[in-house]
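Hi Y.,

Following your request, here is the sequence exactly as I used it, all 65 residues.
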Amino acid sequence: MKAYDEAMYWMRNDEWFTVDSERDCFELTDAAPQRAVESFRLYLLRNDLPVSLAVRPSEREIVHQ
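Below is the corresponding structure, written out as tokens. Let me know if you'd prefer a different format.
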């Protein structure tokens, strides 16, 4: 698999992500497996976006405490 393909792995399943129209960005869902989370981190890094966004909704409280 090419590096670009791995950075986009998280988009393979529509249940793994959603679009936050208020913030105009993608977000992972709780259905996203760990590989999709890691792929999303890679996507964020390659696009100079904050890696802190690469958490599932159920993990947000843990990150922000």
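Helices lie at 3-7, 34-46, 60-63.

Thanks again,
Q.
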